[in-house]
Write a structure and sequence with these properties.
The complex is a heterodimer. Chain A has one domain. Chain A has helices at about 1-70, 75-85, 105-114, and one strand at about 100. By secondary structure, chain A is mainly α. Chain B starts with a helix and ends in a 9-residue tail after the last strand. The relative contact order of chain B is 0.10. In chain B, α10 packs antiparallel against α20 (about 545-555) and α13 packs across α15. In chain B, the strands form 7 sheets. In chain B, strands 2, 3, 4, 5, 9, 17 and 18 form a 7-stranded mixed beta sheet that branches. A 5-stranded antiparallel beta sheet of chain B has the order 11-10-22-21-20, sandwiched between helices. Classes of the chains: A mainly alpha, B alpha+beta. The interface of A and B includes residues 49 and 79 of A. β1 (about 100) of chain A pairs parallel with β23 of chain B, so a sheet runs across the interface.
Chain lengths: ~110, ~600
């Protein structure tokens, strides 16, 4: 009887130990998984923040370039540049103008396109 | 010392150390596990981050998509007085800032002389290049912060139309003021936490409401035509020494305002330095007696009523006509003039006689139908309605004075719109300057389309009026200086004595000229008003040349063909697809 009890006891102990180890391993895996996801999130967060900063910076650059472009192509600027380089321009007389016209649209083709 | 004594002392020290550690652990446990509401709130406050995400104010564009106003990223230069003082670099920093930014040395020294301050602004709204010059020197205690500034690339051009938004970002003049609620974006909100170095912890964000950029306003103005108008105004001030000048260019068929310029003007990027007089948009906010340009409406009323024909002859009494015991004089004496001659020579007597034939009630009806005495409704703040007394309050003499543009006041926009009505075959259009408002997603929030508001005269009357008005700019007319070679211009001069302290000045005039180009199929109408030009005082010799100065480049720019454009070479693509060949006679232009 005593032997039997001893044998049963040792079998129960090893099972508990296996369960404990398994629980430990699962817990460890969960912790590692949590840490992995957390790190991944942190990394993504950092990337998003960098992207946000980059976007803000690019928007500023776009605004600045739009501003430069607007100023560069204004007639006021062009006149100033022409004066700077002593370029004088005048409108052409009507007789000096050659007007190029698009071909007259074919009515049937136009109708078919509708 | 005995062994037992030593042992007891060791035990006591150990117990003391253990008690301290135990106390620390208990405190630590208490801090973490206990309620500690006030402490937790304090920590919460330290970590809490409520960040307002600023929105971009909407932009303003002209009709071709050219930028007229936008928020521009800038940099502000700051100093840290505490660092400067501890490093003893205040003097050298002030020298550099004066050299690079033009900040007076005394100002930097005064600002740096505040040892308890950590942040003093030295210069605002610098470009990246300007700020870069300072930052490249890597001076300890000198740093930059990002900022934004409303910027206007055209500076003083179209300043009265565009207006400006003040330092708080609130529109305070012009379109910036009228469309402030649409231009203003909606700020966003971010709720998050920050670390000990005040950096946001992205993973702790709990709320993120993105900002909405303000809507963009698209104007009917054309930057190039505006430039010509501005140049015309500069010419007016330089050549005719007037106190003020204003002009409007309108699309006859649609009522769109293509340009609106005034002098004095101001730089929108430096609006705080401007005066109220400089900021006044005279084109819509000054009521003035129009003088002879008003005869156009009087004669149009007479013709439309069928009371007069263009060749009917009137006795202009050699320049002096007594009506109800009061004399009415012409600038030059004329005998008999037909209706065309009355307009060409600008006879007051002739116009007054036509008005008397039309009668008070009908004249009043016509003038109101032309939009005189009421606001046009243009989308600009401060528009005046002009002054036209109710007909039952007219004195018996008033009809002869109103006929020639006295005892009545108009704005330049009103009188130009009335002229454009004549150019538009008698259909009065609603003038407008904003074509559409588009939000950041491209949704059109508001769109203005050409709108007819009435038809005071028939198409025939309008055509006859244009034919008669052409004679004004032809030899023998009062507006010959407005003429442009090759173009028929229907126009009218105006010169009215200025009202000063209730009396007409004998030395100061309001001189004006308004015209339609080309006269047969008008595309644009232009009005020029000069306040007190001297020594040349009349509209024909001062405003008419300014009109020409503006109109001549505009007709080329808009490719308005001369009346006789037969010598223009027209080519169409060759049938085989290679090269071009002269267009057959009667070929229709394909846009």
């Amino acid at each position: 009887m005593a032997n039997k009890n001893r044998r049963n006891h040792s079998k129960g102990g090893s099972t508990a130990m296996v369960r404990g180890v398994a629980l430990g391993v699962v817990s460890l895996l969960l912790v590692l998984l949590y840490l992995g996801i957390s790190n991944n999130c942190e990394a993504l967060g950092r990337q998003i923040k960098l992207a946000e900063q980059e976007k803000a910076e690019l928007l500023k650059q776009v605004a600045t370039e739009e501003q430069n472009w607007a100023q560069a192509r204004s007639i006021r600027n062009m006149e100033a540049l022409m004066a700077q380089y002593r370029i004088e321009m005048d409108w052409p007389a009507e007789k000096d103008i050659i007007r190029l016209h698009a071909a007259r649209p074919d009515r049937a083709v136009e109708y078919a396109r509708r | 010392m005995t062994d037992s004594g030593y042992r007891w002392k060791s035990i006591l020290v150990s117990l003391g150390v253990m008690a301290i550690w135990l106390g620390l652990f208990v405190r630590l446990g208490w801090l973490h596990l206990g309620p500690n509401t006030s402490l937790k709130a304090k920590v919460e406050r330290l970590h809490h981050l409520d960040m307002e995400l600023t929105s971009r104010r909407g932009r303003i564009f002209d009709r071709r998509g050219n930028l007229l106003a936008q928020d521009l990223p800038t940099k502000d230069i700051h100093i840290d007085p505490k660092v400067l003082q501890s490093n003893r670099t205040t003097r050298i920093v002030s020298v550099h800032l004066e050299r690079l930014l033009g900040v007076p040395r005394a100002e930097t020294l005064a600002r740096a002389n505040k040892p308890n301050r950590r942040d003093e602004t030295i210069a605002r709204n610098l470009t990246d290049a300007e700020a870069g010059k300072v930052l490249r020197l890597r001076m300890p205690g000198v740093f930059a912060r990002s900022s934004e500034k409303r910027h206007y690339p055209l500076e003083n051009e179209a300043c009265h139309v565009i207006g400006f938004s003040n330092a708080e970002g609130v529109g305070s003049a012009g379109i910036e003021q009228r469309y402030d609620d649409m231009l203003q974006g909606r700020s966003g909100l971010r709720k998050s936490q920050r670390d000990g170095r005040h950096r946001e912890l992205y993973t702790r964000r709990t709320l993120e409401i993105l900002p909405e950029a303000g809507a963009d306003v698209h104007l009917t103005l054309d930057q190039t035509i505006q430039h010509y108008a501005e140049r015309g105004m500069d010419h007016a001030i330089a050549e005719y020494h007037c106190d003020a000048a204003w002009t409007i260019v309108e699309d006859v068929r649609t009522g769109q305002i293509l340009a609106m310029a005034c002098r004095p003007a101001y730089d929108l990027n430096a609006y705080p330095a401007s005066t109220a007089e400089q900021r006044r948009n005279r084109a819509v906010s000054v009521n003035y007696e129009p003088g002879s340009v008003f005869k156009t409406l009087t004669v149009a009323a007479g013709i439309n009523e069928g009371l007069i024909a263009t060749n009917d002859v009137f006795d202009c009494e050699m320049g002096r006509w007594t009506y109800l015991g009061r004399p009415l004089k012409d600038f030059h004496p004329y005998g008999e003039l037909d209706v065309t001659g009355i307009l060409r020579k600008s006879s007051n007597v002739g116009a007054a006689k036509i008005a008397v034939m039309v009668g008070e009630k009908k004249l009043d009806t016509y003038l109101r139908a032309f939009g005189i005495g009421r606001r046009t409704g243009i989308e600009l703040p401060g528009e005046e309605a002009g002054l036209l007394a109710p007909v039952n309050r007219w004195s018996k003499l008033d009809i002869t004075r109103i006929a020639m543009g006295h005892t009545v006041a108009v704005t330049a926009l009103q009188i130009l719109n009335a002229l454009c009505c004549i150019g538009n075959d008698g259909i009065l259009m609603q003038p407008y300057i904003v074509s559409k408002v588009v939000d950041a997603n491209g949704t059109v929030l508001a769109e203005h389309r050409p709108r007819a508001v009435g038809r005071p005269i028939t198409e025939r009357t309008a055509r006859l009026m244009r034919e008669m008005l052409v004679s004004v700019t032809q030899p023998g007319g009062t507006g010959t200086r407005a003429a442009i070679e090759g173009y028929a211009i229907a126009g009218k001069t105006g010169s009215a004595e200025k009202l000063e302290n209730g009396h007409y000045s004998k030395t100061k005039n309001m001189a004006s000229f308004m015209g339609l180009i080309p006269a047969d199929k008008p595309q644009i109408g232009i009005v020029v008003v000069l306040d007190n030009p001297h020594p040349l005082r009349t509209g024909g010799v001062s405003a008419a040349p300014v009109f020409r100065c503006i109109a001549e480049p505009v007709v080329h720019y808009l490719d308005i063909r001369p009346a006789d454009a037969s010598d223009t070479l027209h080519y169409v693509p060759a049938p085989d697809g290679e090269g071009w060949e002269p267009a057959p006679e009667g070929a229709v232009d394909v846009p």
